[in-house]
Specification:
Length: 295
């Protein structure tokens, strides 16, 4: 599933007049023929039309990551025991359209962060057909996994419509179907404003979690968010928390004009609890500078 390099990397090998997917420069960098048609068709089928190169880099990156996640989850879910899975490429030998997780300049695409989640040793996934949802836990560890499975129907303002949870035990090196339920009565008539969230957790933390929209992303009625961000730390290591008063999908965090490595990015905000991000910088910096450049 091809995607563009990150926008920050695109700025490094283009001039303003070249920043168009149909330009000769992008053709030379792989944006020609079936590869670009498949990428744009897939991305625009699921997401609104991108307004400019920055949005196009974001949309194609998230589309590639979501598609790869579905592929890997299906392989893990449908086999009786764990099988090895290798991604096609990790990085790029030159700036181009590609299925890589890291572009030529080291820019981390959405796939880089998604891989951390969908390759987690214990993974919860869902298959929705019509209004019926089937949840499966894949346990690739050598120990039985004992935890709690939870799922909820939420509205676009992160208010619960329906929720349920119960304990589970997934044997080592197995896949366990933990629940199969018809959600029709809960979502009927609200497919464009209700979403599904699900997780497995133990006494320490969430082992895995995810969200599912009952319609295409471009048709979902997202409410306008009010973000709340906090940053703490000093030197080269910091902790940022990002919260919102409504459901937000695919939140991208970056620091304009500053280098920073993030533990999490392109994430969903599904409740009142903020998302916690560990930040490392290559040089000493300050909280004030990070707050000023955070976008």
């Amino acid at each position: 599933h091809n995607s563009l390099p990150t926008y920050g990397s695109i700025l490094k090998f283009t001039r303003p007049e070249n920043r168009n997917i149909g330009s000769k420069l992008f053709e030379l960098h792989g944006a020609d023929g079936d590869s670009v048609i498949k990428m744009l068709t897939g991305a625009q089928e699921e997401y609104p039309y991108a307004n400019g190169m920055s949005e196009l880099a974001y949309v194609t990156g998230v589309y590639s990551a979501e598609a790869s996640m579905r592929d890997v989850e299906a392989i893990r879910r449908e086999n009786e025991r764990p099988l090895g899975i290798l991604m096609r490429s990790m990085n790029d030998p030159w700036p181009s359209l590609s299925p890589s997780a890291v572009d030529y300049y080291g820019g981390k695409k959405p796939l880089h962060y998604y891989e951390r989640d969908f390759f987690s040793p214990v993974r919860i996934s869902v298959v929705v057909k019509g209004t019926r949802a089937r949840f499966t836990v894949s346990n690739d560890t050598r120990q039985d996994y004992v935890g709690v499975f939870s799922y909820a129907i939420m509205n676009n303002k992160n208010q619960p419509v329906f929720r349920d949870s119960f304990p589970i035990k997934a044997r080592a090196h197995t896949n366990l179907e933990v629940h199969n339920v018809d959600l029709g009565s809960a979502i009927s008539g609200h497919e464009n404003e209700y979403y599904l969230t699900y997780s497995v957790s133990d006494k320490i933390n969430d082992a895995s979690k995810g969200t599912y929209l009952f319609t295409k992303t471009k048709r979902f009625n997202f409410a306008a968010p009010n973000y709340v961000t906090e940053i703490s730390g000093n030197g080269t290591e910091f902790i940022a928390t990002v919260g919102a008063d409504v459901f937000v999908k695919g939140v991208e965090v970056y620091f304009e004009g500053a280098e920073a490595s993030l533990s999490k990015n392109y994430f969903d905000i599904t409740g009142r609890a903020p998302v916690r991000i560990h930040i490392e910088t290559p040089r000493m910096t300050t909280i004030e500078k990070l707050k000023r450049t955070m976008k």
